[in-house]
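Example protein as discussed:

>
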Amino acid sequence: MKYILIFLSIISLALPYKAYAQTPVEENVQLRIEGPHLKNKDGEVLQLKGMSLFWSQWQPKFYSAKTVEILKNDWQCNVLRAAMAVDYEGYLTYPDRELKKVETVIDAAIAEGLYVIVDWHDHHAEDHLEESKKFFAHISKKYGDCPNIIYEIYNEPLEVSWSEVLKPYHTQIIKAIRKNDSNNIIVCGTPSWSQRIDEALKDPIPEENVAYTLHFYADTHRQELRDLAEKAIAGGLPIFVTEYGTTDASGDGIVNEEQTKIWWKLLDNYKISYCNWSVADKDEACSVLKPESSIEDLTKNRKLTTSGRLVKAKLQN
């Protein structure tokens, strides 16, 4: 018996560390919102950091298991975001096609042990209420028992009222989700391209495990928006930066490393989770890959853009 134990000990030491390493979901399991914080199963504050995929109808090749694997193992993401396009020949026109892409990413994230944000990537979701309810009812029924899932039920509302338009919309989608999933986090878009989180602070949604979206592009949105963020945090509002860019609000222009790092410092200080926009090879500054790149090129620094190298280094560190 003694020799068997010694042999097993030697074998265990020879196994690679990866055999023992827990995935992010294995380590943290079911997430919850408490005050302004995202917390894990043990009540510890958790910060998720990762990448957002691009609009699903325009960059479909990255909606693959291989992308998820690389983002986890090479980029060291613990969360990723599937941005399912709604308008512009997206889900409203081709629901089965776009749903299949999103489910491919969800299935891969579950297999890899990552958290995955299921994003209704829309600017007019209040006009697509029934379609949104149907989509999230389906996703919550199919995946609601998986702690990996985070629902982002409205990407970026425009200049619309929080209390009269957005809160009623969110309330109905939350109700549809909670019929199947009573636990997983739901993130709600805020007015003005998900920047006016102060409006949500004045009139929050009286539901558990709900957070509020903050989006920024570092070269456009500077101290004024950071002040709004700190005000909301001080007021106890849970914030999730489901999308940010290193560039100006168009997604192009310069990569403003200085302003990006100021934002990172604030978010890291308050343990606010964030995903960078985006995993794409579109010819614009906020894409992480140069044009005509492949999924495998995510592992090659020479194929990364200025933004890609900056963000990847941040995630790896």
About this structure: Strands lie at 32-34, 37-39, 49-53, 79-85, 115-121, 149-152, 186-188, 210-217, 239-245, 274-279. The CA atoms of residues 242 and 275 lie 5 Å apart. The chain has one domain: 34-316.
